[in-house]
Amino acid sequence: MSPRNPQVTVGETGEFGLIRAVTKGRKQPAPTLLGPGDDAAVVAAPDGRVVASTDVLVQGVHFRFDWSSPGHVGRKAVAVNLADIAAMGATPTAVLVGLACPPDTPAEVITELMDGMWAEASAVGVGVVGGDMVRADQVVISVTALGDLGGRAMITRSGARPGDVLAVRGRLGWAAAGLAVLGRGFRSPVGVVNAQRCPEPPYDAGPQAAEAGATSMIDISDGLLADLAHIAAASEVGIDVQTERLEIATRLVEVGSALGADPVTWVLTGGEDHALAATFAPGPPLPEGWRRIGAVTMPGTGVTVDGKPYEAPPGWEHWR
């Protein structure tokens, strides 16, 4: 029975049959010294330090198959992890996948999901080097991404200093707009909806910022203001976002007008775009593609917008 047959389930295919189906014929890139098939993978670490990050995506919480194809879900699962690697100033080197699903899940769903994972990983030159598959009541995906600093200093959340410039690279507000569209039962505009289904993190921006001397950096996963608060807390500084500097795409304005929503709110508090935000010392020009959106202010004052506290929720937080 072929796993690509929509009538065949995971239970009928079996654990090892499914593993063979999603690994057969895959080519591993150079950093993979030993891929799937043994007790563990072996990945090169030229720098001598390994950057590692894990994210868990749960069906019904992070994705819905009536909104996203399995391929989109697979790409998203990998993208959210690789963005964390980039946020440390590192280059991704490998991905490991833990997958749980009910036995009546069509095997084709899992093979398409893995196709999406491989596509996103391959786009940045890394492979899916191993993982595990188990039974569960719903689809749960756990991805671990590894990275290499290439001799660069790691960029943490704790290095921002008063006077630094706050800058971002990547899209903001698009995924939130897509979520709003899907929540209203629509499937267009496709570009906005696809931003929610599958983010497009600027992977190269992390090492680029590190080489340019970024003092702190973070992946925008829960919302710009919510994630900047992590930098403010870790660095014990204030951060002010200047709305006049934010890039509000025409498409977001159009969608906001159609839904009766403020696109500025999407940009400030919407998560899942996985843009990068970083702080840089004042004076030198920002790296190409980065745009200034604010500044680091006096110590210990949290995050403000145009010099004032933001009264609405700043972004997403689990269990709230």
Structural class: alpha+beta
> What is the strand content?
15-25%
Mean pLDDT: 93
Spatial separation of the terminal alpha carbons: 44 Å
Number of helices: 10
Q: Strands across the major sheet, in which order?
A: 8-10-7-11-9-12-13
Order of secondary-structure elements: HHEEEHEHEEEHHHEHEHHEEEE
- Rounded to an integer in angstroms, the radius of gyration calculated over CA atoms is 20 Å
Give the uncertain stretches in residue-range form: none
- Count of β-strands: 13
Shape: globular
Oligomer: single chain
Helix content: 25-40%
Largest sheet: 7 strands, mixed
Structural features, described:
By secondary structure, the protein is α+β, with helices and mostly antiparallel strands. The protein contains 10 helices and 13 strands. The protein has helices at about 10-15, 15-25, 70-85, 105-125, 175-185, 190-195, 205-210, 225-235, 250-260, 265-270, and strands spanning about 30-35, 40-45, 50-60, 90-100, 125-135, 140-150, 165-170, 215-220, 240, 275-280, 290-295, 300-305, 310. The strands form 3 sheets. Strands 8-10-7-11-9-12-13 form a 7-stranded mixed sheet. A 4-stranded mixed sheet has the order 3-6-4-5, with helices on one face. It has a two-stranded antiparallel ribbon with strand order 1-2. Strand 1 (about 30-35) and strand 2 (about 40-45) form a beta hairpin. Helix 3 packs parallel to helix 4 (about 105-125). The protein is globular, with a radius of gyration of 20 Å. The model has no long low-confidence stretch (mean pLDDT about 95).
